[in-house]
Automatic annotation (TrEMBL):
SUPFAM superfamilies: Class I glutamine amidotransferase-like
GO cellular component: cytoplasm
UniProt protein name: Glutamine amidotransferase
Annotated ranges, domain DJ-1/PfpI: 3-171
Any GO molecular function: transferase activity
Keyword Transferase tagged: yes
Statement: the UniProt record of this protein carries the keyword Cytoplasm: no
Keywords associated with the record: Glutamine amidotransferase, Transferase
Matches recorded under PANTHER family: DJ-1_PFPI DOMAIN-CONTAINING PROTEIN, PROTEIN/NUCLEIC ACID DEGLYCASE DJ-1-RELATED
Amino acid sequence: MIKTVHMAVFDTFADWEVGHATAHINKTLWQLEPGTWQVRTVGLTRDAVTSMGGMRVVPDIALDELSPQESAMLILPGADTWESGVLAPFVEKAREFLAAGVPVAAICGATFGLASAGLLDARKHTSNAAEYLVYSGYSGADNFVCEPAVTDGELITATGTKPVEFARAIFARLGIYEPHVLDAWYRLYGENDPAGFFALAEYEEQRSAAAAQ
């Protein structure tokens, strides 16, 4: 059974903040159940959008077509427009996901959008800075945690400067890798430690050998 992770796309979305997560969800190498996962994009409409990096993306579906029951997770990247309120429909979709027990992962400006709607008031969370979220008018400052990424139940939040930690939290919540494989993945991509690469290569070699028997 294919499990679909939906990633929100809209004009000025910060493409680099979600690159590690989406690439390795789609990439079967090292996964616990290869071929299980896919990423699909969701826009306010099906009209093309342009990322902050200038990439033109045509959403796979429109937001009103998205149901939590048909998704494994909703990923919300940062953008220049979260503070303006124009992305409020994505916030309401996140509320729907959380109410249904389906994970939501928000990074950078997306955390501001969730905060402004009260979705962080009773959940441990992080963001670019505690002071940044204060401007949202939220009441959750006591639950702010000064960490690169924070998971509280079905909600993952992260600062925009830590996309690798954001990806690691997503993989852990979805169970995409075995724990020791995820540790090796982070050593490679988060710490630039060659030992992580060799651990991953050894894991894949052992798995291939076992499959050939």
